[in-house]
Write a structure and sequence with these properties.
The complex is a heterodimer.
Chain A (H helix, E strand, L loop, with lengths): L3 E8 L10 H16 L6 E5 L3 H5 L4 H8 L7 E4 L5 H14 L6 E8 L5 H9 L14 H16 L3 H15 L13 H5 L3 E3 L2 E2 L8 E10 L3 H4 L5 E10 L14 H14 L8 E3 L5 H10 L30 H5 L6 H14 L12 E8 L4 E8 L2
Parallel strand pairs in A: 2-3, 2-4, 9-10
Antiparallel strand pairs in A: 1-7, 1-8, 4-7, 5-6, 8-11, 10-11
Helix pairs in contact in A: 4-13, 7-11
Chain B lengths: L3 H6 L1 H4 L3 E5 L5 E2 L14 E5 L3 E10 L12 E8 L4 E6 L12 E11 L6 E9 L2
Antiparallel strand pairs in B: 1-2, 1-3, 4-5, 4-7, 5-6, 7-8
The chains are: A alpha/beta, B mainly beta.
Chain lengths: 385, 131
């Protein structure tokens, strides 16, 4: 298989974009990625989207978006793995280029979540859990992650304040990201005293409902000069694993097996260890999710992730900067776009283009994107050389 | 919303607690599976799951889906039953303050929700604290 490089990235301001449609926000991001790469055409595209059918009543996105991007009749495919759809769209695009089928391929992600009310959005997101054996019995996504938090607190003594510190850290980073939906800073007290959603998680432990899209353009590493003037960012590893989508079917409710498995495979492919990673973008859909993912990826010992933000170890400038972009919490979480936005952030960091939130000297970055409570996970490692 | 066929298909599990015990390794799958998760065996006998167990975790849902509006806030938990089966259910008849990991619970057959005018009355199991 051929080595693959990211040559262009595009992302627009995320938020409640009432004046823009799903196709508008996708095309805006995709054109920015095409322009950044400096290419005049793409040969195929993969689009991550969790559930446009439920959010805006539109499926068949591969063709719709290729058409509106002005790239028809190229092959366009929509990829779904709940909130990991974007990461898996990138992985699919990578295999397309690596296999030699196409040279210049676009991987995008999009979700338009605010066209329906909160109840509709809660239902749409809940379809990532087991419909008959979790959702039927009243569970919501905040509820599932709250149960992971209770189990983690019970097993390891993780505190409510430590979880709040994750949100505070991610908002501090996101306040320096012009694309972030909520670029404001928080305090631990504000997180603790905000509205309770599912005990012990408050609304400021939860990532928001977001309209947003992101896109990247990739090509074979040995043909970068032919297509682009940009400094290429090499894909060093791509790994994907699954687990039961029902949380209750896992032997350890605090351990994300698919994340650990995808992480192990990614480290092995790249010949790297956790200590070699300069920054990581993880799937902090809830504060407890960040704690569990950084343990499963080996950045913190099992049970020790709780203190990561409180101690400053996961801050920009800390031992392992986690979610320099602001993460899902501050940047926003348009579910299908999140995995692509993580690639956008790491690419910018490795090019040295991350402005106020730049991790100094970053050469190797990781992304971790997951679906549901960890029923799917995709991990990528990118390198600047 | 459940369609009536979708609701009816799950009745053996929700009304009669039917699970599949692998005749090869003894693992109990709830709901039943065609392929055993532990040993990939395909021969099962139908058994009833245990009716008692312990809470592994819990939460109180303060912002719930509209189907549960008349019950919100409500407690939910994951329990491991005495036969090793793990499942998610609402926790009925409990004070939120008393919820604790390790708390003994039993399964009871309860109304889960009703789907409104001319809709289905949806039944199933809930956890109830054993005091």
């Amino acid at each position: 298989m051929r080595d693959v490089a990211v040559i262009g990235v595009g992302m627009t301001k995320w938020g409640e974009l009432w004046e823009k449609s799903l196709r508008d926000i996708f095309v805006e991001s995709a054109l920015e990625a095409v322009k950044d790469a400096g290419v005049d055409k793409i040969e195929a595209m993969y689009v991550g989207c969790m559930t446009s059918g439920l959010f805006v009543g539109q499926e068949h996105l591969g063709s719709l978006l290729a058409d509106y991007l002005g790239m028809g009749p190229i092959p366009g495919v929509r990829v779904e793995s709940a909130c990991a759809s974007g990461g898996i769209a990138f992985r699919s695009a990578m295999f397309d280029v690596a296999s030699g089928a196409h040279d210049v391929v676009l991987a995008g992600g999009v979700e338009k979540m605010t066209d329906i009310g909160g109840d509709g959005a809660t239902f749409a997101l809940s379809t990532a859990a087991d419909a008959e054996y979790e959702v039927y019995n009243g569970v919501t996504f905040p509820g599932l992650y709250a149960m992971m938090a209770v189990a983690h607190m019970d097993a390891y003594g993780t505190t409510r304040e430590q979880l709040a510190a994750v949100s505070v850290k991610n908002h501090a980073n996101g306040s320096k990201n012009p694309h972030a939906q909520y670029p404001f800073e928080l305090t631990v007290d504000r997180v603790l005293n905000s509205v309770m959603i599912a005990d012990p998680l408050t609304i400021l432990d939860c990532s928001p409902i977001t309209d947003g899209a992101a896109a990247v353009v990739i090509c074979p590493l040995d043909k970068v000069k032919e297509y682009s003037k940009n400094q290429p960012v090499k894909v060093l590893a791509t790994a994907h694993a699954t687990d039961s989508i029902a949380l209750h079917s896992r032997k350890d409710l605090t351990w994300l097996g698919a994340v650990a498995k995808a992480g192990e495979q990614a480290y092995a492919q790249a010949g790297l260890e956790p200590k070699d990673i300069d920054l990581v973008e993880v799937h902090d859909c809830f504060t407890i999710a960040e704690v569990c993912t950084i343990e499963a990826l080996g950045f913190f010992e099992k049970g020790k992730g709780g203190a990561s933000a409180e101690s400053g170890e996961s801050a920009i400038g800390g031992r392992i900067p986690v979610n320099a972009s602001g993460g899902l919490k501050s940047k926003g979480h348009p579910v299908g776009a999140t995995g692509i936005a993580q690639i956008v952030e790491v690419t910018k960091q490795l090019r040295g283009d991350a402005d106020q939130r730049q991790v100094e000297g970053a050469k190797i970055g990781m992304t971790q994107n997951m679906g549901g409570t960890g029923g799917s996970c995709v991990v990528h490692i990118l390198g600047s050389e | 919303m459940s369609t009536s066929a979708r609701y009816w298909r799950e009745i053996p599990q929700r009304y009669r607690y039917e699970a599949g015990r692998c005749t090869g390794c003894g693992e109990v799958s709830f709901p039943p599976r065609v392929v055993c998760k532990s040993c990939a065996g395909r021969d099962f006998e139908t058994v009833e799951i245990a009716k008692q167990g312990k809470l592994l975790t819990h939460t109180v849902i303060r912002v719930g889906p509209s189907q549960f509006a008349d019950q919100t806030p409500y407690a939910v938990g994951v329990a491991e039953l005495d036969d090793g089966v793990r499942l998610t259910a609402m926790i009925a008849d409990a004070d939120f303050e008393e919820l604790k990991v390790g708390m003994p619970v039993k399964l009871e057959f309860r109304l889960i929700r009703d789907e409104g005018e001319a809709g289905i009355l949806c039944y199933g199991y809930k956890f109830v604290p054993v005091r």
